[in-house]
């Protein structure tokens, strides 16, 4: 018969306390039970593990040699028990997180840091999203949660959403642009600028970002299309147009040759956490709670966005 984990625990307790009664008290067992467990181990090993006297117990050479093996086995058993419990209770697995780099970083960074600390048993897989990826990838089941900026109507597309944070918007211009360095700018001042966008006003989100129609009723001048923040910045730096972005892009997505100027007369941008409407899985639920808590803490600090 192989040594049991219970017998190894008794042996380790005796080795720590050098006393059968104290070991029994530590394990909430009777001294006779501890003694029987150790005696059983000695029979299986074929040699004494302890030198017993009336006052104390010392490990024999064989007992000292067995000690690290017993520690390794009981530690591994503890990890197995914890893993099994986490699996049974839905506290571990894989969680696929979609995010728009540079467009949601004001929230993504603290949320991800908190998730790493609070979900140690979960494997977190990050997927970088383009401007128009969040909804279709969630609907297709390719990501479990997504952080996305801008106007969203989750219920209309089979999703559940939480608005985590609101932040101002900025005009993204080339560093040499006439408005670079200004403390603020109004839409009327960029009426004739070419706007870089995800699509030329063909969907509600693109029109919202470009503020189409403008306050005077006319559309903006649409120019090159970009799939993500990096492409926007490359096109702006090259002087091919301007863009409107969330203010936190100035901190998390800046690059040489690009300037960010606060827009004074446009509504703020919301950053959303999106999940499938019927998804109540443990990982998604835990990430939702973490995102809400992290965003609340960020708002309490004044929503540190925008540089």
TrEMBL record:
PANTHER family documented for this protein: HCA OPERON TRANSCRIPTIONAL ACTIVATOR HCAR, TRANSCRIPTIONAL DUAL REGULATOR HCAR-RELATED
GO CC annotation: protein-DNA complex
InterPro entries with a match to the protein in the record: LysR_HTH_N, LysR_subst-bd, WH-like_DNA-bd_sf, WH_DNA-bd_sf
Gene3D superfamilies: Periplasmic binding protein-like II (3.40.190.10), Winged helix-like DNA-binding domain superfamily/Winged helix DNA-binding domain (1.10.10.10)
Domain of life: Bacteria
Keyword Transcription included in the entry's annotation: yes
Pfam name, any one: HTH_1
Domain HTH lysR-type intervals: 3-60
GO molecular function: DNA binding; DNA-binding transcription factor activity
Family to which the UniProt record says this protein belongs: Belongs to the LysR transcriptional regulatory family.
Swiss-Prot/TrEMBL keywords: DNA-binding, Transcription, Transcription regulation
The protein, known as: LysR family transcriptional regulator
